[in-house]
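# nightly structure sweep
# worker-07 picked up a monomer target from the shared queue
# config: single-sequence mode, recycle default, output format = structure tokens
# input follows
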Amino acid sequence: MVRNLITETIERNTIRVLEKYPELAYLEPTPISDYHLQKTFEASKTSYRILMFLHIFRRTAIGTPKKSIQQLRDNAFARYGAPLPGGAAYLATTIRKIHQVNSFYHFIGIMGPPPMPKEWFSGFLKARMQAAIAKGYCSVPFNQQQAMYLRREKETDVEPFASNQGKSSDDRETDPLFMFQRTVAG
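# output follows
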């Protein structure tokens, strides 16, 4: 359930990511992109904080092992609605930790699933962006070559778009990337 919730959140946040960092529309061919990982997280940090809080609050309220609704109700009535012993202190400590979370690695650590390698998570983010576009959550008004140009303004060493490699300077006038650069610059 938590993995599905994280997946859906990342897909729905894609529009925020692209509004704040349009250069992330470029799906770089490299297996790992620290820039992509960090900026994607930063663009939706508030959303992820809320999700972490709700997850921790749910775990604190329900406890482990999971209880039935009737058991939860009976326990809450027995305590006159007060939190479980130590629950308020645990929530306060965890909220402080949530405010320090600044990457997907730490976000996943709080949410519960085992952390995945950067390579896997970079691919996961690219796939979620493509899924968000396919589901209509957002759209990208430019192609990958144009997105690469935007990305190179922020991350100069990003690997280039494969179909753009090996072009001579004579091809510049027909190259969509060159035309896009000239339009943006002029």
